[in-house]
Structures are given as C-alpha cells and as structure tokens.
Design brief:
Elements: H1 10-20, E1 29-31, E2 39-44, E3 48-53, H2 56-59, H3 62-73, E4 83-87, E5 97-101, H4 117-132, H5 152-161, H6 168-180, E6 189-191, E7 200-203, E8 206-210, E9 217-219, H7 227-230, H8 236-244, H9 250-271, H10 276-290
Antiparallel strand pairs: 1-2, 2-3, 3-5, 4-5, 6-9, 7-8
Helix pairs in contact: 4-8, 5-6, 5-9, 6-9, 9-10
C-alpha cells in the first residue's frame, strides 16, 4: 500500500516476541486479515494481538496509546485495547510495537446493514459522549485537530483528481456547505479521531469494542461525527444525532459531514488502486454524503 512501508511477516513477529517477551515465546502467531493501512496485526496465542506500525508516522503514536488507553478504558462503556507490552526495534524492524489484549467481534462493512442499526447508533453515541466527558487536562492534540478549513486546498485538489470517479458538483456542494458552518469555538475535547469500519467491532449488531486509537487526542468534537456516514445508514443517522443531544447543532453536524467527506476523498485518492476495501468504504461514504447512495 505504501512505497516506504516495512516488510513484516509471521517469522519476524515470532523472533521479536521471542527476543523481547520470552514468556510468550512459542505461542502461535497468525496474521490477522485486515484492511488496515497503518499497522500490521498478528494474533498471539488465544488472547493477545501484536500490532506493528508499517510506517514511521504510525510508530510515533505508540507511546501515546500506552500513555492514555488505560485511563480512557475506565471511563468508556465498551472495551478498548488494553496494552500488555511495548516492544522496541529489533531484528531489522525499526519501530516500537505493541502487544494488546485480543478483543472479539467483527468489523462492519460499509454499505452492509447491521442487525441492530438503531441500537448500534445509540451505542456509538454513548461511546462518543463518554469519551468527550473525559478530563482533557494534559491530553495531546488529536491527529485531526486542525480546523476543517485548513484542509480546503487539499480537499479541492483531491476532488479535481477524482473527476470522473465522483460527482464533482455534488461533492463540492457538500464541502462548501461544511465550510460555511460556524467553526468550533470551545476547547478541544477527547476524540477517537477515526471512527470508521476497521476501527470498531460489532457483536450481534451492537457496538462491541472500539479499537485503533492512534488518532486520538483533543479536537473539535465534530471529528467523531464521521461515524454517522462511515458506520450508519440513513435510518440510523437521526437516531445517532438525537442520542448525542442538543450539543450537536446544525453547525457541528455540517462540520462532521465535512470531516467525513475530506477523509473519504483522501482515502479514495490514495487507496483506489492498492486497498479495495478502503476504496469501497470511501465510495460508500461519499455516496451517502451526496445523497447518491445509502
């Protein structure tokens, strides 16, 4: 997927575990099939997973996850990854890496209905509300902490590059409407920062766990509203918004649309030839935002 990503395989993971966590040496190692773009995942034994950054940028987030996830977990209504160990570079692998507790569940597929869409929407609203209420003192800025307007040039360039792939007029109308929304004026609140299908686990149609917190930190709360278009259909979206309460006014909702759109456009531009799952998800989100699909 990336020109500069590190080569990772099961043999490397076994060697790293044996060298740095000898108590777990000999446990089975099995690659986890995932459309994730930043990390490679390998099941370790029955109840652990090894997560290795593919790129230097993702490696920079390792310490953040180990610093904050345990505290956040105590405040959240669903399980999140529990760090069990932090490994370091070795055997030719250049980055820090993590061992987490394995969490059961399935990742949803964009465009495929959930068994309990309304209940899932309420679950997601409960998770986001609980996360927003965590004390942000000392928290880092989220990966997507800049104002939405700061992405204007890059977003319009992505739209131009996707002419013939997306409806340029419809996409531009959504983007322009998002930029007209009043910007966030309050202090940053805790956000996950990347609530899309690969980062949530579903059990019997309900939200079972939220994973991959490498984008987390403080930001405009509208960032986490991307879940409405990445994870929900037209019927579930109003349930989600209502469950979040009056704090989600029209301006915040519009900014949430803008965040979902700019992220999806960037993903489609980058992954349309290298990651079919990510590209299909991005197309689904863009279709939902422009009213061309749901």
């Amino acid at each position: 997927m990336h020109a500069d990503e590190v080569d990772i395989d099961e043999a490397l993971v076994r060697r790293l575990v044996e060298d740095q966590f000898p108590a777990w040496a000999g446990l089975p190692v099995e690659r986890v099939d995932s459309a994730g773009t930043s990390n490679a995942m390998y099941r370790l034994g029955a109840d652990m997973v090894v997560r290795l950054p593919r790129l230097s940028g993702s490696a920079e987030d390792i310490e953040r996850e180990h610093r904050w996830l345990r505290g956040l977990a105590a405040a959240l209504p669903v399980p999140v990854p529990a760090p069990l160990g932090m490994g370091g570079p070795g055997d030719g692998y250049p980055y820090p890496w993590s061992v987490f507790r394995w969490l059961d569940g399935e990742t949803p597929v964009a465009g495929r209905p959930l068994a309990e869409p309304a209940l899932f929407a309420k679950d997601m609203a409960e998770f986001i509300t609980a996360l927003r209420e965590v004390d942000p003192t000392g928290a880092p800025a989220a990966y997507r902490s800049d104002p939405l307007a700061s992405r204007d040039t890059a977003t319009r360039e992505a739209v131009a590059g996707l002419r013939g792939v997306v409806d340029v007029d419809a996409v531009t109308a959504v983007w322009d409407a998002a930029l007209r929304a009043a910007p966030w004026q309050g202090p940053g609140v805790w956000v996950h920062g990347d609530l899309q299908p690969g980062n949530v686990l579903v059990h019997e149609g309900r939200l079972g766990a939220v994973i991959d917190f490498e984008c987390m930190g403080t930001a405009d709360p509208a960032v986490d509203l991307i879940a409405a278009w990445y994870l929900m259909d037209a019927a579930a979206r109003p349930v989600f918004r209502t469950a979040l309460g009056p704090a989600v006014d029209d301006d915040m909702w519009a900014r949430g649309q803008g965040w979902a759109l700019t992220i999806a456009l960037m993903e489609l531009s980058y992954y349309q030839e290298t990651n079919p799952v990510m590209a299909d998800t991005a197309r689904c989100v863009i279709g939902r935002l422009t009213g061309l699909a749901d």
